[in-house]
Amino acid sequence: MAMRAAPAAATGLFSPPSSVSPRRFSLATPPPSLSAGRCIIHRRRLRAFPSSELPQEELNPSVDLLRKTAEAVGDFRKTPIYIVGTDCTAKRNIGKLLANSIIYRYLCSEELLEDVLGGKDALRAFKESDEKGYLEVETEGLKQLTSMGSLVLCCGDGAVMNSTNLGLLRHGVSIWIDVPLEMAANDMLKSTGTQATKDPDAFSQAMSKLRQQYEELKERYGISDITVSVQNVASQLGYSSVDSVTLEDMVLEIVKQIERLIRTKAMMEAAGKPF
């Protein structure tokens, strides 16, 4: 019965930012180094696939990234950005750095639900026991969040699982971060304290589950306005491995595609055609 009540309780988590817990979401506003007009240049490269999810305050864009972002994005300000794709630390880290680079708020819909329901396991149980309720919560959340400008929202799979939610993503720019499933599988195992090298069977099972999810959702992911593939970025930059791709490489590719999207929209509007 408690699980049946979860959708109603979860709906409140998508309230305006003023009602969000300051402890949990103190990073929703730009880091002090950015809001004050300063930035920190990391001496090490920001890897796209660190061993764990990084706090947003550690993802300070370089001066070069801030400059290129400002030049490319221009009048894009206040348009919300929705990030979809297989859940993994890389997807979330990229979303955080993107938000910091364009001075946007960052939120993750799955983390909001985890807070309300009591953790990852509770959220997983909710999805499996009441998919309809999960999608209803996702719909309600998207309805409220689409009214917020200057937002990077890292979305769960519920955002692409029905036409209503896909339609709500049209209120902003949707971006599919396409990551190697092996990376997502490693993340899945780490969350349970398992190492792929020590438990190949567990890794194989995780890969099988992710492949099935990917095949079911890839066409819906593909409806996104922008697709950024880690493998493609590695190839374009001449890297021998996806491990060489950095977070800044990924954000720069996203910004380039946003700039291209802005130009295309401007051309369509100038021609008097619907975009």
Automatic annotation (TrEMBL):
SUPFAM superfamilies: P-loop containing nucleoside triphosphate hydrolases. Residues 1-26 have a biased composition (Low complexity). InterPro entries: P-loop_NTPase, Shikimate/glucono_kinase. Its main location: plastid. It is found in: Plastid, Chloroplast. GO terms for cellular component: chloroplast. It holds the Pfam family SKI. Residues 1-30 are annotated as: Disordered. Belongs to the shikimate kinase family. This is Shikimate kinase.
